[in-house]
């Protein structure tokens, strides 16, 4: 991997809540494939909000963080 390659996972915690991420970056943060996000959004069983910019689906960083929090398993708050 090139040292100049941007790794969204390393910088995710520093991003503002209102930053919009591409489906590719969202999939990388969530640890899944882009197709999984597309399929779940199409089926309507995905509780992660989508913002369409032109023809591209985008996800707000704040919504991704909320999704991660809602879907975590284990820990003291369960």
Estimated share of beta-strand residues: 5-15%
Characterize the quaternary organization of these chains: single chain
**Percent in helix:** 40-55%
Quickly count the helices. 4
- Based on CA atoms alone, the radius of gyration comes out at 13 Å
Please trace the helix and strand order, writing H or E for each element.
HEHHEEH
The end-to-end distance, rounded to whole angstroms, is: 37 Å
Instruction: Count every beta strand, where a strand is a DSSP E run of 2 or more residues.
Output: 3
Q: What kind of sheet is the major sheet?
A: 3 strands, antiparallel
The chain-level structural class is alpha+beta
With strands numbered from the N-terminus, the spatial order across the biggest sheet is: 1-3-2
Q: What is the 3D form?
A: globular
- Unreliable runs: none
Mean pLDDT: 88
Describe the structure.
12% of the residues are buried. 41% of the residues lie in helices and 14% in strands. The longest helix has 10 residues, at 34-43. The chain has a three-stranded antiparallel sheet with strand order 1-3-2. The termini are far apart. Strand 2 (51-53) and strand 3 form a beta hairpin. The protein has 78 residues and is of the alpha+beta class.
List keywords for this structure.
alpha+beta, three-stranded antiparallel β-sheet, 3 strands, 78 residues
Describe the secondary-structure layout:
Elements: H1 8-11, E1 20-22, H2 23-30, H3 34-43, E2 51-53, E3 56-60, H4 61-70
Antiparallel strand pairs: 1-3, 2-3
Helix pairs in contact: 2-3
């Amino acid at each position: 991997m090139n040292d100049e390659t941007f790794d969204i996972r390393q910088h995710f915690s520093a991003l503002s809540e209102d930053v919009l991420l591409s489906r590719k970056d969202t999939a990388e943060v969530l640890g899944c494939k882009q197709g999984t996000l597309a399929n779940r959004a199409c089926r309507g069983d995905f509780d992660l909000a989508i913002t369409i910019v032109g023809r591209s689906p985008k996800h707000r960083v704040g919504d991704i963080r909320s999704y991660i929090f809602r879907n975590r398993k284990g820990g003291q708050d369960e």
